[in-house]
Design a protein that fits this description.
The complex is a heterodimer. Chain A is α/β, with parallel strands linked by helices. Chain A contains 14 helices and 7 strands. In chain A, strand 3 and strand 4 form a beta hairpin. Classes of the chains: A alpha/beta, B alpha/beta.
Chain lengths: ~350, ~850
């Protein structure tokens, strides 16, 4: 028994609810037999992977849905064992190289060569090539991407690669130029409403449009989140009557609390308090960039128009430094101090540096 | 007489107290000034007295010998001791009642030295007198209340007569500071010492002083008496184990406690861990103890390789045999500088881990020890020595060791010992110089001695400026993270500034050196980060904090570039990014910095939570294997933490009422069954647990509910399901899980199942190769999934299985060989093989 997210995931290109022209294009691509390497990109929860699965089905028929999941162990040069989960059918293989951390190059090299050098053995297969799906392609290291680029050309006859990424900015240009770029945009409100209603109909209950609206508000274009949220809502209040509270993820609530703390008081003591909160968030494995972004969004919502740009600017600056650095908490706190300083200066409308 | 009368004018410090005692001087009894300082003071008091109010007597005194001494007084080398001698003699000659001589204390110096001084002084043409003074006995009261009088040795006082100095010269003495005067006295005294010790020291000239003056006996040890005693006590506890002797009632009582745990009469802690800053004599202490208690020493120090291997190769064999190769005494292992050994991390092959294992080894009960792996218990003491008790590598050792901490002995003791050494080495040292040296070295005896020897190689005199010059390098010696942090945030005390002879404003080189010397920049940065926001709380503009943040970020950027990209050329710049905290945040009188655990705690917590995420991922992966890859998209990193973890908690915590499953409403029943479905699919279960107060509770496993618990509080919108509900759910889930396990066996591996049933009947059956037999399609008997010759799995046709079922049921079997069905090699086989 699966969660609704998976249970009601469309299986075929025809049954997709939105981006119909994209579906048509994919269908014709699959039909013409000259299938290129592809790069699907777009925000989280927009339906990239769903579309990839559908395209596979279009290419190979229902056989592509018979999945087998196993674990492969790769040996690093220093004899460390790296375990990578592999999802495969007879026609394709799906990997997430970021599981291997720094050794993703190794996984890419070994696995791709192995696949690329064997031909499709199933004579009944519709296509002569196999497909390799690489998830989280934007977290591939430089080396891994470089390893990919030549393989993509060399073994074109045996293999197609489908990359899946949130943004193309971290992929090197040679890869982008070898792929057909497909952007999957987040669904708009009507589309999300439609999907949510579809899900609730399939499950067998009536979803009040207001409740769906609330969910859509919170989910920010992330359909996966919306459906998870819907299921949580249904479990929490099965009859969906009375005033509904849409559950926000806890870390988000907590981030908002942090933002409120920053705005309500600017003092060294408060800095320490905020630091504790950051530690708490980090210990829950919330990615620091997400923390910074969520808190900054909330702060910007609440401050005066005049300093919004400043706050965002510094958030961007510190986020970049945070990616370069290794000790995330320093950067988070430095941003907090910066924001407090900006806010205080604005509030008193004068230069306080003379008081020092 | 005149002198005593005169004293109470308060000019003369301690001398006053001596002379003040009303009848002390008169009755010859009570006064016994202890130290040399008192002696000198007294001398001075004698000297100073004739300054004014003194009546005719003193005038006449000075008048009497005035003329003859005036030329002596003009000499620059004129020393106080001579002066003192003058006054003593002069007053003695004047007041022959012995009143004054009584107040002169005995010089605490061996008699031969006195003799030498005597001879020395006689050469300078001074005549001597010896005065034997009877001393009053000391009265003491025993526990019984009896009064006991203890007689004291009569003391001998050397009195020298010489031509005394003039009184106007004595007036000049007031301009000179007291320490200068004392220097003079001291230099005079050490001059006297030189004579006899020359022959002895010349023989040893090539040694390091550190070696030459290393304590050899337990009684030679200086300072830290308590630690030494404790350590010896601990070592003595081994006596019953090592030497098999029992001595003393007290020991027996101790052993009664230990006997319970240890069959070999070993003390409870089998390792002694001595820690403390360098140069305080930890290694010496260990060696002296070993000698004292009658052991041979097996020393392992940083010069040996110290991997886990060495324990197995060297230490264990040596300690198991218990004696050195040709030694007669039992062995004692001293592991020096253990904080440099491998030990951090979870690796079980580290030195420290193995060492702990060594002591924990349970003695094997069974007599025959034929297998190599069985180990004997270690019956010899082990002493470990380290500088930093908090070193990460010692974390495992600490709970198993008896810890002793060597403190810096008080400066007075160190100075005293140094002075004795200086005297034997005919090095003229004034006490100010020595105490400066000890102050700079922070009690490091070894450092002091090396410095002294270094100075001795150039000159025969040691003065304060020389000490300062020679100890330039010592300033930055050994600093722990905490002390560096303290220096970064707290300005130097005025005294220390003077000690270091440093310009307060030139802090950059001092601090950067210190940070560099410590070598743990990232720990210091963490400390700075933890601490800076607690300071300067009244900064209105946050400018300091912003700057601090900037510097920390610079540090982080540099160190990340260093460690991630291997750009180690950047490392010299790291210390400079931390120095700015000094001008930004230094505050006089700020509280000292304590070790801040926040960052560390956060790290530990993160690790725990990552582990929970990992087990959650495993659950998801299992679920996705079972459900045709359904859950696999939820496994990826940001989605798992940001979306799945918070919502799954809400999905599996519906507000259910704790009612009997028979009377529950249909919609609730639906929720319940859905909940059980999801939980069993994900293999999340409620595990029963008994808390400390004996209350039963159900805990979610894996503990995914930490992800909606922030600051120790659960999310407000999720109800905590009651015990009864969880009980209900847990039962259902467990039932579902166990039934599913049965399903899987039946569905996936039917052949295996049947193979097993048939297998159970005859265990001696694997002989014929299964692959051949499966090809014959007769039966499948292997206990592993059947494969063909090429290792491909083979599907056994239904009729074969049913055939075998038939076999299994009725015991008397009929069997017919199907001819021509196989191309395989034929082989005779017993009937039993197929059953």
């Amino acid at each position: 028994m699966s969660l609704w997210v998976d249970q009601y995931r469309p299986r075929a290109l025809d049954s997709l609810h939105y981006h119909c022209d994209l579906s048509n294009r994919l269908k014709s691509l699959a039909a013409c037999g000259d299938f290129p390497h592809m790069l699907f990109y777009g925000p989280s929860g927009a339906g990239k992977k769903t579309r990839i699965t559908c395209t596979l089905r279009e290419l190979f028929g229902p056989g592509a849905e018979k999945l087998k999941i196993d674990q492969r162990v790769f040996l690093s040069p220093s004899k460390r064992k790296i375990e990578v989960n592999i999802v495969q059918s007879n026609f394709h293989i799906e990997i997430t190289p970021s599981e291997a951390g720094n050794y993703d190059r190794l996984v890419i090299q070994e696995l791709l060569k192995e696949i690329a050098q064997t031909q499709q053995v199933d004579l009944n297969a519709k296509q002569r090539f196999k497909v390799v799906i690489i998830n989280e392609a934007d977290s591939l290291s430089r080396d891994a991407q470089a390893a990919l680029r030549r393989t993509m050309e060399k073994y074109m006859s045996n293999m197609r690669i489908i990359l899946c990424a949130n943004s193309t900015s971290r992929l090197i240009a040679p890869i982008k130029s070898r792929c057909l770029l497909v952007r999957v945009a987040a669904p708009n409100r009507e589309e999300m409403q439609q999907v949510l209603q579809y899900v609730s109909r399939r499950v067998g209950f009536d979803l009040p449009p207001e409740a769906a609206d609330k969910i859509i508000d919170d989910s920010n274009g992330n359909l996966r989140k919306a459906i998870l949220c819907l299921e949580a809502l249904k479990m929490q209040s099965p009859d969906l009557s009375g005033p509904l509270t849409i559950a926000k993820p806890d870390w988000e609530t907590y981030c908002h609390k942090v933002a409120d703390l920053i705005i309500s008081e600017q003092s060294p003591a408060r800095v320490m308090e905020v630091r504790q909160k950051f530690y708490e968030l980090l210990s829950h494995c919330i990615p620091p960039t997400v923390i910074l972004k969520t808190v900054a969004d909330r702060v910007v919502e609440r401050v005066d128009e005049a300093i919004k740009a400043d706050v965002m600017h510094w958030a961007a600056v510190y986020e970049m430094r945070m990616r370069i650095g290794s000790k995330k908490i320093y950067h988070l706190e430095a941003w907090v101090v910066k924001v407090m300083s900006i806010y205080k200066h604005f509030f008193y409308d004068m230069d306080l540096s003379g008081f020092d | 007489m005149a002198a005593t009368a005169f004293v109470p004018n308060g000019l003369l410090g301690s001398a006053t107290s001596n002379t003040f005692k009303p009848n002390g001087l008169l009755s010859k009894s009570a006064v016994s000034p202890g130290n040399e300082a008192g002696e000198e003071m007294e001398a001075e008091s004698n000297v100073f007295k004739p300054t004014g109010l003194l009546g005719t007597k003193s005038k006449s005194l000075s008048g009497q010998d005035g003329g003859s001494v005036s030329e002596d007084a003009s000499l620059e080398t004129q020393t106080l001791s001579e002066l003192r001698a003058d006054t003593q003699t002069s007053s003695f000659s004047f007041v022959p009642t012995g009143l004054l001589s009584k107040s002169t204390p005995d010089i605490s110096r061996p008699s031969e030295e006195e003799d030498s001084s005597l001879t020395h002084t006689t050469t300078t043409g001074v005549s001597n007198n010896t005065l034997v003074l009877p001393r009053a006995s000391v009265r003491a009261t025993t526990f019984d209340g009896k009064t006991v009088f203890i007689k004291r040795k009569p003391k001998t006082v050397q009195l020298r007569t010489t031509a005394a100095s003039t009184s106007d010269r004595r007036l000049d003495l007031l301009d000179e500071p007291i320490h200068r005067l004392m220097e003079k006295v001291r230099s005079k005294q050490s001059e006297r010492v030189i004579g006899p010790s020359t022959s002895k020291s010349s023989a040893l000239e090539d040694n390091l002083w550190v070696e030459r003056y290393r304590p050899q006996k337990f009684t030679d040890l200086m300072g830290n008496e308590r630690v030494a005693r404790d350590a010896l006590n601990w070592l003595k506890q081994w006596d019953r184990c090592v030497f098999g002797r029992t001595n003393g009632k007290k020991r027996k009582r101790d052993d009664n406690e230990n006997d319970i745990q240890d069959p070999y009469n070993r003390p409870r802690e089998k390792i002694l861990l001595i820690s403390g800053p360098p140069g305080l004599g930890k290694t010496t202490l260990a060696h002296v103890l070993a000698k004292q208690a009658g052991y041979d020493v097996l020393e392992i120090n940083a010069s040996d390789a110290r991997s886990g291997q060495i324990i197995d190769d060297r230490i264990r064999p040596a300690l198991e045999s218990g004696y050195a190769v040709r030694g007669t005494k039992p062995l004692l292992a001293i592991i020096d500088e253990i904080d440099g050994a491998t030990g951090a991390g979870d690796n079980s092959n580290t030195f420290v881990h193995k060492l702990v294992q060594l002591t924990l080894d349970k003695p094997k009960k069974d007599k025959h020890r034929k297998d190599k792996n069985s180990t004997r218990a270690i019956l010899r003491p082990i002493i470990c020595i380290c500088n930093d008790i908090n070193a990460a590598s010692l974390a495992k050792l600490r709970p198993h060791a008896y810890q002793l901490r060597v403190q810096k002995p008080s400066d007075i003791h160190t100075v005293k010992r140094l002075r004795e050494i200086c005297e034997t080495e005919k090095l003229r040292a004034d006490s100010r110089a020595l105490s400066t040296l000890v102050g700079i070295a922070k009690g490091d005896m070894r450092g002091c001695l090396n410095t002294l020897q270094f100075i001795r190689s150039r000159s025969e005199e040691i003065t304060e400026p020389m000490v300062r010059a020679a100890t330039k390098g010592m300033k930055e010696a050994d600093s722990s993270v905490i002390s560096v942090l303290n220096n970064l945030f707290i300005p130097l005390s005025k005294k220390r500034v003077k000690d270091l002879n440093d310009n307060e404003n030139r802090y950059v080189s001092r601090l950067s050196h210190e940070v560099d010397a410590c070598g743990r920049e990232s720990a210091i940065a963490t400390g700075c980060f933890a601490h800076y926001a607690t300071l300067r709380r009244h900064d209105p503009s946050f400018s300091r904090f912003e700057k601090a943040g900037e510097w920390l970020m610079t540090f982080d950027t540099l160190s990340a570039a260093m460690y991630n990209d291997g750009d180690f050329a950047l490392s010299p710049y790291l210390p400079y990014t931390l120095v700015p905290f000094y001008p930004l945040f230094q505050e006089r009188g700020a509280p000292r910095i304590e070790r801040n655990q926040d960052d560390w705690n956060n790290l530990q917590l993160t690790k725990t939570n990552e582990e929970i995420y990992r087990s959650l991922v495993r659950c998801l992966q299992v679920a996705s294997t079972r459900n045709g890859g359904d859950f696999r998209h939820l496994v990826n990193t940001p989605i798992l933490q940001l979306e799945f973890a918070p919502y799954i908690n809400r999905i599996i915590n519906p507000p259910l009422r704790p009612v009997n499953s028979q009377i529950v409403r249909p919609e609730e029943r639906a929720v319940m069954s859905r909940l059980v479905d999801i939980m069993s699919t994900l293999e999340l279960r409620f595990v029963q647990e008994r808390s400390d107060d004996g209350q039963l509770s159900y805990r979610l496993d894996p503990a995914a509910d930490v992800f909606m618990t922030y600051d120790g509080k659960r999310a407000a919108d999720v109800t905590v399901s009651r015990y009864a509900v969880r009980h209900l759910v847990a039962e259902e889930v467990d039932a579902r899980l166990s039934s599913r396990q049965g399903d899987i066996v039946v569905k996936d591996k039917p052949t295996k199942q049947k193979g097993l049933t048939s297998k159970q009947k005859d265990p001696d059956e694997d002989l014929p190769s299964p692959s051949k037999r499966t090809k014959t399609d007769v039966v499948d008997i292997a206990d592993r999934p059947p494969t063909d010759f090429f290792g491909r799995p083979i599907k056994v046709s239904n009729n074969a299985a049913s055939l075998r079922n038939g076999f299994a049921k009725k015991y008397p079997v009929t069997y017919r060989y199907k001819e021509g069905n196989s191309s395989a090699v034929r082989k005779p086989i017993k009937m039993s093989a197929f059953l």
